[in-house]
Structures are given as C-alpha cells and as structure tokens.
Amino acid sequence: MLTDVAPATKPRQSRRIATEAAIVEAFGRLMERGSVHDAGVNALIKEAGVGKKQIYDYFGGLGGVADAWVRRTGIWPRLSDMLDEPLETFHQRPPMERLRMLVRTYASSLRAHPAVATIMAGEFAGPPELRDAVTAVRIRIWEEYERLFIGQRSEDKELLAIAMTMLSAVSYVGMRAKFEPNFFGFDLHDDLAWERVVGMLDHVMGRYQTGVDAATSHQSDSAD
C-alpha cells in the first residue's frame, strides 16, 4: 500500500510547494509596485494565478502570506544579525547607546527594503485584508526590538518615550521615502539627504544622552 500512495503524494506536495512559492512571490511583486490600494486578496489571486481557497488553505489569509514573504525572502533580517558586534558586547552598552544603534539599524533596513514601507502604509490606506498582513509583519519586526531593547521600559519611562518617538519617526521617514520622497526640502531618494535626516534623529538622541550623563554625574557629585 505504501508504494501505491507515495508516488501520488509526492507530486501533490511538489505542486503545493510550487503554488506556495508562486503566491509569496506574487505578494512580493505587489509590495514592490507599492500600491496599497491594490494589494488585497483579489489582487493577489490575479497576480499569482491561483484560487482564493489556496491562499486560505495554505496560509490562512493575507497575513500568513505576508509573514511567509518576510521569512522566506529574508527581506527583514534579524537585527541581531545586522549589528556590527556580538550580542554580548551590545548588551553591555548603556541603554541610550543601544537605542541609537537600533534606530540606525532600523533606518538602514527600511532604506534597503522599501517594499516593507508598502506593508506599513497598508495599515492606514490599504484594504482590510492588508491590515492583517501589516500586523503579521509588524509583530515580526517589533519582537526583535523588544528582545534587544524595549525590555528597559519598566526601568526608564523617559527612555521608552524617546525610543518610541525615534522609531516612529524612522517609520514615517521610511514611508515618505517610498511614496513621497520630498521631505522638508530633502530628497529621501538621495543617499546624502537620507543620511542627513537620519543624522538629525541621532543628534536629538545624542543631546538626550548628554543630558542624562550630565544629570548622572551631578547626582554622583552630590552624593560625594
């Protein structure tokens, strides 16, 4: 009996693998084109040349397709893999230094993968199905930030506030670069202009860090 079932099962598995790959690749093409208004399930069906049932049977919906796209294409690498030093060294740095590194890493990732900005914009302007996809991708991105940094929130509410502000600012700038690159006179498609804008955010964090260091030094002097 096994010899009769196996040959029939193998082609079905191969067809499913090929169909899943076609769906994921089609989703990626939709994201690259950047039209969040045309990135729903129906658009994906047309782009991939598959049936709606396959999308839900294989992925559970558009959110599952988006999550598979992120995982399979590596379009959003783990932040820990993008750091230029071992995690042990990173965790030994003061929290503000870690935040500055993470903000720059986040900015670099958005710059390298503008299709991610299409998903992010879909939370505000896309069809309802795309919002599920946004949630799936955002969870994948933010769980890494939480692991590397946001755990400090219970210890320093001010640090959490500036972290959320800076990461939100980078998200906005990343979406502007994708859809409307003229930002206060800066052409975000230009490498130098992009670096200047990201450098401004880093400057703000640097001023905050200087103030924290000064306050800490003053407290130490007072204690002495």
Automatic annotation (TrEMBL):
Protein origin, superkingdom: Bacteria
Keywords associated with the record: DNA-binding, Transcription, Transcription regulation
Gene3D superfamilies with a match to the protein in the record: Tetracycline Repressor, domain 2 (1.10.357.10)
Stored InterPro entries: Homeodomain-like_sf, HTH-type_TetR-like_transc_reg, Tet_transcr_reg_TetR-rel_C_sf
Gene Ontology MF terms in the entry: DNA-binding transcription factor activity; transcription cis-regulatory region binding
PANTHER family listed in its UniProt record: HTH-TYPE TRANSCRIPTIONAL REGULATOR BETI, HTH-TYPE TRANSCRIPTIONAL REGULATOR RUTR
Name of the featured protein: Transcriptional regulator, TetR family
Species in which this protein is naturally found: Caulobacter endophyticus
Lineage, highest ranks first: Bacteria, Pseudomonadati, Pseudomonadota, Alphaproteobacteria, Caulobacterales
